[in-house]
Amino acid sequence: MNKRPELQKLNFKNPIHVAAIGFGSGLIYPAPGTWGTLAGWLIGLGVIATLGTTALLVLAIIASLIGPKICGQTAQDIGVHDHGSIVWDEIAAIWLVLACLPAQTALWALGGFVAFRVFDITKPYPIKALDRKLHTGFGIMIDDTLAAVFSLVVLYLIYWLV
User: Fold this and answer.
1) What pLDDT, in 10s, does the model give residues 100-131?
2) What is the pLDDT of residues 68-93, one digit of tens each?
3) Count of helix runs (H) and strand runs (E) in the chain
4) Taking the model in full, what pTM does it have?
5) Among 126, 122, 121, 116, CA closest to 154
6) What span, in angstroms and rounded, lies between the C-alpha atoms of 50 and 46?
7) How far, in Å, CA of 137 to CA of 135, rounded?
8) How many other CB atoms are found less than 10 A from the CB of residue 4?
């Protein structure tokens, strides 16, 4: 018996669905959000290494602008708002974190990953309030975008204090 029958509604020929599930990373259980973040983190590091941080920032902005459509449409199609397998929001957010790190080093990149996961999982105020209130594609994206902003604030505080 399939414990996730809603995933049978995914259409792997539909590029919106494929992007929403992080090209398959959101289908890894447990912790699909962490797997999606890891996929985005690795792609982001590759973009930085080949094209630079400005290119990743542009990519993060584009991903965030199209994210409500990608996440909202997929959620509607499978019939579950913000299903765990929808990880486009994590990918766009970790790209934002990586593009805006205080310094482009492996340690800061790792710190960005950890900080983002902490804020995405714990959802401190107002992230949790918005997550509960907004049941749209925008709602799916905003909690991760705010987790990215919170992560960057903490990383910059550490950078300035150290």
Assistant:
1) 999 999 999 999 999 999 999 999 988 888 87
2) 999 999 999 998 888 899 999 999 99
3) 7, 0
4) 0.93
5) 116
6) 6
7) 7
8) 14
